[in-house]
Design goal:
single chain; mainly alpha; 2 strands; binds zinc ion
């Protein structure tokens, strides 16, 4: 009767049920299975919801600037309005790229998203100090969401 074999959860080498350690990569089979179970139950859902923040931010860059232009009336020249809309679209495209990248390198993409977000609103505030309070609630919500995304990425990295 052939001995039934299972796969190493880490390197997929074949193990027997008696093997406590993988002969190929040396990982403890039980510990690796437990690590994968915790990752799937705890970290994977957090990363998935954090990725939604990165996607929502892309939408907000373009919608926020469109709204700003629509409510500006005659306060902004037509050329300035076009620049503001183009900047919003450009940021949206960059943020969509970061969202895509976060499926491969989550932590790096989350950190870059947070840095970009802080940079954009610092420049915004320098260009127009009265703009600081515009949409302040959403800014706080996004800053909190991105900070949570970064910490979820750090926790997931430590767990993998
Ligand atoms: Zn292995």
């Amino acid at each position: 009767m052939p001995v039934e074999s299972i796969e190493c959860p880490k390197c997929q080498a074949s193990l027997t049920y008696e093997d406590q350690f993988c002969p190929s990569c040396g990982v403890s089979a039980a510990a690796e299975r437990e690590r994968q179970r915790v990752f799937a139950a705890v970290h994977a859902p957090k990363l998935a919801s954090a990725r939604n923040w990165l996607l929502a931010l892309a939408a907000w860059y373009v919608l926020g600037n469109l709204l700003g232009v629509a409510t500006a009336g005659d306060r902004l020249a037509p050329l300035v309005k076009q620049i503001v809309v183009a900047l919003g679209l450009g940021l949206c495209v960059v943020q969509l790229g970061l969202w895509w990248w976060s499926g491969r390198a989550f932590l790096a993409a989350a950190v870059v998203s947070l840095v970009l977000f802080v940079t954009v609103f610092t420049l915004d505030a320098v260009a127009d100090p009265t703009a600081i309070w515009k949409g302040i609630l959403l800014k706080v919500v996004f800053a909190a969401g991105l900070t949570r995304a970064v910490s979820a990425g750090v926790a997931a990295r430590q767990a993998s």
